[in-house]
Amino acid sequence: MTENPYIRPEPHVSDFNVPVVEEFRANGGRVGGMFEGGDLLLLTTVGARSGREHTTPLGYVRVEERLLVVGSAGGSDRHPAWYHNILAHPMVTVELGTEEFSAVAVPAEGAERNRLFDEIARRVPGYGDYQAGTGRILPVVALERADAESTEVANLADKLLQVHTWLRGQLGHVRTEVEAHLAERASRSGADGPPPPGINLQLRQHCLAFCESLHFHHTGEELMFPHLEEREPHLARTLDRLREEHRTVERLRGELEALIADLAGTDPERLREEVDRMATELEAHLDYEEAELFPTLAAIPLPPDAPA
């Protein structure tokens, strides 16, 4: 679930960036000063250690319809904080002009990173200058739009179906990338040296984004269930079963994240088995929830009726 079901603190913005962020939001994405005339977006990430949201203005480049940002940090020898954040929490929020949307942040690797960076530096030579001044490889990060399918939402059942559809799609995406990862591993069986970079980081980011979103969605549901149970006492047994299924899915999520954390050392067949187990359990859970709760949730309008 990409929307937060409970109130979060305002994202942290460094003192230097405060006026830039304020001007961006006040003027539909247009800013002056050193950023005037440039392509600028706001990237909100979750801190790798703090867990707090941080908003950073970044230049962007579109290459082959992909929205790309570069971890240049002004040519510093250290990666910017936002890059460490997206490795820990791939789900981000992007503000582009007057539009705001959720995205999965996926760094490019190997030859693909080099090809994209060369094109970026051709269009914006300053990035090439930054790279020439440091031994650090400047990351190129694709911001892949991850909003749920834009459909009309009239009630709570519609909203949950939208989220369920997104989760199913993301898990299907992960399963496809697992098969690609296993095929790459099989093609290099017996070869000397580590496997070349490519699908590994992409799979990691998408899998973490799915796991993070699933955990967030179920956390939100756990907050909703007591209110629903009070309103509809006949659903008590159904909600107890859903809570138990949440615990099962949460355990599988933890096991999958542990495997993804060490892709190089993970047994390929176990990885496939764990992803298949997650797909089986989650699909059964979502089907049950839709069958048992949606008739009731369809009667709860969104947005809620205003008080008299």
From TrEMBL:
UniProt GO cellular component terms: plasma membrane
One annotated GO molecular function: coenzyme F420 binding
Keyword Phosphoprotein found: no
Coiled coil: 235-262
Cleavable signal peptide: none
Catalysed transformations (reactions): oxidized coenzyme F420-(gamma-L-Glu)(n) + a quinol + H(+) = reduced coenzyme F420-(gamma-L-Glu)(n) + a quinone
Ranges that cross the membrane: none
CDD domains reported in the protein's UniProt record: Hr-like
Domain Hemerythrin-like: 157-297
Pfam families membership: F420H2_quin_red (PF04075), Hemerythrin (PF01814)
Keywords, alphabetical: Coiled coil
Family affiliation: Belongs to the F420H(2)-dependent quinone reductase family.
Official protein name in the record: Deazaflavin-dependent oxidoreductase (Nitroreductase family)
